[in-house]
Structures are given as C-alpha cells and as structure tokens.
C-alpha cells in the first residue's frame, strides 16, 4: 500500500514533468483556462517591432471572458493588441476552444542595452510574462557619412561625393543640407537625380545624397576642407569632405594691342603681333599655334610651337596672314588657335580686305588723259 | 534768241567799256557766263522743260510712295529683316512691287531730260539764223557750244540734286532718324554719278544736234538710242547669251567665262553702268559685281557692309567709263561743230 502510494506519487511527478515538457510556459489559471505564446524571451535591436501571437485556451465547460491589458513597465516602449485586424481590449472564448491575439511590441530607439520584462494581463486567463533582450544601445540621432571623403583633381573638374544620411530618430525628419564651401565654389546636392536643398527621411531609414562640388575658376593648388551639415529641427548630422586641387590650366591668346581686327589688301600680307599667356597655375607644354583661314589664305606663325610656358608667363608670337588675291572686298574671319595638351585658346581676327587702289589710280589716269584730249581739241580748234 | 543776242552784245559792250575805263573796279561777267546764264534761263522758262520736270517729279513721288509703303510694311534687307543699319538708303532702292524704285526711275527717265535739253541746241539756232548772229559777236566760237553744255549740265545737276534731296527729306519725315555722314556721302556720290550719266545723254543729243540739220531728226536719233539702250539692249544681250551659252552646264570654268563675257557686253550700255554703280553705292552689302561668288571666296566671309571708300573703289571703273564716255561725246561734238561752216541765212 505504502509502495503503491509511492509509485502513484512517482507517476504523478512524471505526469507533471510531461506536462511541463509539453507546455513551455504553462500558466495555470482557475478552472482550466490558459494563456500561451511560444517565444517568450526574444532579442531585438532598438527600433525593431516584435510580434507575438498569444493563444487563449479555454478547457472549461463555460464561456470565458477576459479583459486584456499590457504593462510596459519602462518608458518609450509601445505596444498594440489586435485581433482580426482591430485593436482589442476584451475577449471571449467558447468552451474547449482557443482564440489568438496579436501583440506588437516596439523597442524604442533611445534605449539602454539589457533585459526588459513585460506582462500581458488576460483577466481570468491569468498573466503572461514576456522578456525582451535589447541587443545594443539605441542611438537616437542622425548620421551623415561619406563613402570617399577625399578626392583629387584640377580646378576644372567637378568633385562628386556620395553621402549617406541615416535617420535613427523616432520621427520623420526633414533635413536641410548645407555645405560650407570656400568662396566662389559651388556646392549642389542631388537626391535620386534631382537637385535638392532638403530631404525627408522616415524614422530609422537612410538615403544616399550626392554632393557635387565645383571649384572656383581661379582655385589654386591646395587642399580644401568642406564641412557638410544636415540639420533638421531636432537633430543634426555633420561630416567633412576634402577636395585636393593639383593646379589649374589656363591659356589665353590675343594680339599685343588686344585689337581683333586688321586690314589687308587682297593678295597682300599682314603681320600680327600675338601674345600667348599662361593664365593658369600649372605649366603648359607643347603649345601649337594653328590657324583656320578662308580658302587660299595662308597663316604662318613664328615660332610655330612653344615647348613650355611657366605659370603666369607670356610669349610673343608673330602671325603672318596672307590673303587670297581672289578675296572679295569686305570682312573675313581668320581663326587662330593656341593648343596646348591641357588647354586651348582661340582668337578670331576680323580681316577687312581692301581692294588694291592701283586700278583706281589707273582710272584717274584715264580721266586725266581724256581731259587732256579735250583740252588738246580746245587748243586745236578754239581760240585761233 | 534775238533778245539774248542783244543782251550779249550789250554785255560785251559793257565789258569793253570797263576794259577801257581802267578806274572801274567792278569786274564784268565774262561773255561765256552770260551765254550760260541766258541758256539756263531759256531752259527753265521753256514749256519743254516744265513738262519733263513734271513727268520726272511725278515718277519720283511715285517711287517715294512705293519705298515708303515698302518700309512701313517692314521690307528692309531681304536676307536680314532686322538689319536697320542702312535703312535710310533703302528709300532709294526698295519698292513694294507696284512701281519701280527711285534708281530705276532715274536711270529710265533722267536721260530724257538730257536728250530734251540738247537735241535742238545747235541746229535750231542754225536754222533760225541766230547762230551766225551770236558768233558775229566777239566771243570765242567754241564758247557757244561750251555754254550750251555747261548750262545743260548745271540744269541737270540742279534737277537731280533737287530730286535726290526731295527723297532724302521724305525719308527723314517717314523714317524719323537722320542719315549718318556715310549714308549722306553715298547719296551725294550717287547723285553726282547720276548727273554725269545724264550729262552723257546731253552730250549725245548735243552731238546729234550738231550733226543733223533738222531738230526732229536729232530728237528721233536721241530717243532711238535711248530706247535701244534701255529697252532693247538687255534683250539683245540675253539673246546672245542664250545662243552662246556653253552646252555643258556642269563645266564651271566655261560657265564663268561665258557669264563674264555677257557681263562685259551688257556693260557697253551706259544705263547698265549707271545702275551697277548707283546700286552698289546705295547697297553697302554688295561686295562684288560678279554674278558668281566662288566657294573659296565665300568661305569664312562675314556678311558685313563695305566702307564707302571700298564701295567706291568697286564701281570706280564704271564711274571712269561714264566720265570718259561723256568726255568723248563732248569732244566729238566739239570737233564736228568747230569744223562746220557758219553761214548767215539772211
């Protein structure tokens, strides 16, 4: 008998163990009603939303009704209880059946790392304890990062930086984008291909922003630091990009007296004094002088090429323009080009072709000859 | 004519008297200028001149009207309608299509003035017997012919410049802004060339009046020549051009050669010479008188007006030809006149 009762006790313990194995978190409430969810201890980063499906099981013979509530305990956490797509506050379960309720729990962005405990109160069904392990510390701020913050080029090039703007705050933010470019520089922001000055970003989302920096025309060789700000009403993010300018190329071609017009007799020659000047900050090499002339005109340069020209230096060149003897009186364009490997300069000279006055004088001679003939007639026939 | 012979006599008498009275300081008019004045006055008072002037003035008013209508409708340079640089000169060259422009009228009708002034100047005096009376005065024999020429040319100059200034005045009134000095110079040069051109016709009719005894014959000869050059000559040149045009139209060299030859032929006409010279002066954008501009010449050329000097140099051969033709005509009539016998009729 004693043994019998002992074995019965063992059987009861085994039954209990089986029951405990079957139900991970068996919550016993009065009268055979239970509340159940499978994952009760989850890990999540800040900003994440955890979804629980909570089953309410009625093993009793009566309909069970319960008020649902959830206690968050610590601040910043938000939850939502829904069933059938609607928020729910009270639930009724038929005998020998179960009902599901969805619980959405959102980890706040501004949160410390650690374990947080919560409780779902389901009235007569009992309570369901839940634990959330926050895997990292929430930042609750905006972040602006540049992929390649340092770029190199000469003053003609455009520097394009791709930036990533991250909104880790709890609300949607409108960021005003500014860049502290040096005077004369041009900074333009583009998002998705269109130019912008501000950008809207949803909470916990990020956007890539492109910054186009155009250096000032006369920017000298140097390293320029440009601070970039993204500021919304409540949060700001900053970063810094660098533009390294290696030098500028500039060349100018003009006449020594800066006059771009000249006269030439048809078939005649004209010498023009030109000046080739290096207006940049880097040395120019192999400057070739060429001309675009009307047909059967010729243009020659002395010297024809300049092997190198230091920054700021200038060199005189003599251009000899020979016009065609068939050129019409009036204006023609002669284009002169100084072409360096790096850069070129043009000068358009307006050449006014004048007719030779030789035939004019011959005409005058003819008139004089005729007048002399008439005078001879006067002498011969008149006044005798 | 008797009256003016009398006046001439009295003037010469005065001239002699003054010569004898050395104390007198007032210089008398030389007999040549007396004859010029008299001739000038006779022309102005003649019905013939009034009728001609009326015709020419009417034609000019018509051409001014057509130019004004065209300018108001916005027809300026056809290739560049917004170009108003030489708008003033357009008064002389544009037309709305109803009537010819001023230059065409002038080249057509102005020779009539010259012909009308000269065709009976010598033969009618000879027929009336006044020639011998004039030449019986102590004047040089050639002064008679010279006076006829100078008086006619003076009158022509007065008429041409009056008409030209009339057009300029109307232009000022219509367009509302004054001509630049260059435009004014171009117009004045054109008027001088017109005077020379009409002077050529005057000399031609003077030549006929010396050659033909009958005034009617000389008038007919002058008008025949006028019609020939202004109406038929162009047709004849076209006819010859069509007959001799190169068979291979793709042979550029022969086409150009042919066109140059035709141009030379057409320039035998004084009317053609005058029209080319005057229109080049009044259209500064004209850079060449050749009908062909080769690709080489046109490449990189800017469409810009020529300066006055360059325009003048372009048509200088025309001007020289006109002056030379005038002088040759005058010389011919001079020689013919001096060789003729002058007889008293009664």
Helix-strand layout with pairing:
The complex is a heterodimer of chains A (384) and B (346).
Chain A: H1 2-22, E1 33-36, E2 41-44, E3 49-58, E4 64-67, E5 69-71, E6 78-83, E7 86-87, E8 90-93, E9 97-106, E10 114-121, E11 127-134, E12 142-146, E13 150-153, E14 159-167, E15 173-180, E16 186-191, E17 194-196, E18 198-201, E19 205-214, E20 222-231, E21 236-245, E22 251-255, E23 261-265, E24 269-278, E25 284-292, E26 298-302, E27 305-309, E28 314-322, E29 330-339, E30 344-354, H2 358-381
Chain B: H1 2-20, H2 31-45, H3 47-72, H4 87-93, H5 102-118, H6 123-128, H7 130-135, H8 141-175, H9 181-211, H10 215-244, H11 252-266, H12 270-282, H13 295-298, H14 308-339
Helix pairs in contact in B: 1-2, 2-8, 3-4, 3-5, 3-8, 4-8, 5-8, 5-9, 5-10, 5-12, 8-9, 8-14, 9-10, 9-12, 9-14, 10-11, 12-14
Question: How would you describe this structure to a colleague?
Answer:
The complex is a heterodimer of chains A (384) and B (346). Chain A is mainly β and 384 residues long. Helices cover 12% and strands 52% of the residues of chain A. Chain A has helices at residues 2-22, 358-381; strands at 33-36, 41-44, 49-58, 64-67, 69-71, 78-83, 86-87, 90-93, 97-106, 114-121, 127-134, 142-146, 150-153, 159-167, 173-180, 186-191, 194-196, 198-201, 205-214, 222-231, 236-245, 251-255, 261-265, 269-278, 284-292, 298-302, 305-309, 314-322, 330-339, 344-354. In chain A, β10 and β11 form a beta hairpin. Mean pLDDT of chain A is 83; it is low at 24-29. Chain B has 14 helices and no strands. By secondary structure, chain B is an all-alpha fold. At the A-B interface, β29 and α2 of A face α8, α13 and α14 of B.
């Amino acid at each position: 008998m004693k043994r019998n009762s002992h074995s019965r006790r063992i059987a009861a313990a085994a039954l209990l163990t089986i029951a405990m194995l079957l139900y991970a978190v068996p919550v016993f409430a009065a009268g055979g009603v239970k509340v159940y969810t499978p994952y009760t201890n989850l890990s999540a980063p800040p900003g994440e939303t955890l979804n629980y499906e909570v089953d309410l099981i009625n093993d009793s013979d009566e309909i069970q009704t319960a008020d649902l509530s959830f206690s968050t305990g610590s601040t910043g956490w938000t939850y939502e209880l829904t069933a059938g797509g609607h928020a729910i506050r009270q639930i009724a379960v038929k005998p020998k059946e179960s009902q599901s309720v969805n619980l959405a729990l959102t980890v706040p962005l501004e949160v410390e790392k650690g374990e947080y405990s919560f409780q779902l109160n389901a009235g007569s069904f009992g309570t369901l304890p839940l634990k959330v392990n926050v895997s990292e510390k929430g930042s609750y701020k905006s972040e602006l990062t540049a992929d390649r913050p340092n770029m190199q080029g000469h003053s003609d090039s455009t520097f394009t930086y791709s930036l990533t703007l991250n909104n880790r705050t709890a609300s949607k933010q409108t960021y005003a984008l500014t860049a502290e470019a040096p005077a004369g520089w041009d900074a333009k922001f583009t998002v998705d291909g269109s130019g912008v000055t501000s950008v809207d970003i949803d909470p916990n989302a990020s956007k890539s922003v492109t910054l186009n920096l155009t250096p000032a025309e006369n920017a000298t060789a140097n390293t320029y630091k440009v601070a970039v700000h993204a500021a919304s009403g409540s949060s700001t993010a900053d970063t810094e990009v660098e533009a390294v300018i290696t030098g500028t190329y500039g060349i100018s071609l003009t006449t020594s007296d800066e006059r771009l017009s000249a006269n030439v007799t048809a078939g005649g020659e004209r010498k023009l004094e030109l000046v080739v000047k290096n207006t940049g900050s880097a040395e120019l090499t192999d400057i070739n002088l060429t001309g675009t002339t009307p047909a059967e005109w010729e243009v020659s340069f002395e010297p024809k090429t300049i092997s190198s020209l230091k920054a700021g230096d200038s060199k005189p060149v003599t251009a000899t323009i020979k016009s065609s003897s068939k050129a019409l009186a009036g204006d023609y364009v002669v284009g002169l080009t100084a072409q360096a490997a790096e850069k070129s300069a043009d000068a358009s000279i307006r050449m006014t072709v004048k007719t030779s006055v030789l035939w004019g004088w011959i005409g005058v001679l003819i008139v004089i000859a005729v007048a002399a003939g008439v005078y001879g007639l006067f002498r011969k026939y008149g006044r005798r | 004519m008797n009256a003016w012979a009398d006046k001439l006599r009295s003037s010469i008498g005065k001239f002699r008297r003054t010569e004898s009275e050395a104390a007198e300081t007032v210089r008398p008019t030389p007999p040549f200028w007396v004859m010029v004045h008299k001739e000038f006055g006779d022309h102005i008072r003649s019905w013939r001149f009034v009728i001609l002037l009326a015709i020419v003035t009417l034609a000019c008013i018509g051409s001014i009207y057509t130019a004004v209508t065209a300018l108001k409708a916005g027809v300026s340079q056809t290739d560049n309608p917004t170009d108003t640089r030489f708008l003033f000169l357009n008064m002389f060259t544009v037309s709305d299509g109803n009537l010819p422009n001023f230059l065409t009228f002038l080249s057509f009708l102005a020779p009539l003035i010259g012909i009308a002034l000269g065709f009976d100047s010598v033969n009618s005096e000879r027929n009336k017997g006044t020639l011998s009376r004039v030449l019986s005065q102590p004047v040089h024999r050639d002064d008679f012919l010279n006076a006829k020429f100078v008086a006619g040319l003076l009158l022509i100059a007065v008429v041409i410049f009056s008409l030209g200034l009339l057009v300029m005045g109307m232009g000022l009134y219509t367009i509302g802004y004054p001509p630049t000095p260059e435009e004014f110079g171009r117009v004045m040069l054109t008027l001088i060339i017109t005077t020379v051109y009409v002077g050529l016709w005057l000399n031609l009719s003077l030549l006929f009046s010396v050659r033909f005894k009958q005034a009617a014959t000389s008038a007919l000869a002058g008008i025949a020549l006028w019609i020939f050059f202004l109406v038929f000559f162009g047709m004849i040149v076209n006819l010859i051009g069509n007959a001799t045009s190169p068979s291979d139209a793709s042979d550029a060299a022969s086409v150009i050669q042919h066109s140059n030859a035709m141009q030379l032929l057409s320039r035998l006409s004084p009317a053609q010479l005058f029209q080319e010279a005057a229109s080049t002066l009044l259209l500064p954008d004209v850079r060449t008188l050749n009908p062909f501009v080769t690709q080489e010449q046109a490449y990189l050329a800017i469409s810009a007006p020529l300066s006055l000097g360059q325009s003048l140099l372009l048509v200088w051969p025309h001007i020289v030809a006109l002056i030379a033709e005038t002088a040759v005509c005058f010389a011919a009539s001079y020689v013919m006149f001096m060789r003729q016998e002058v007889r008293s009729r009664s």
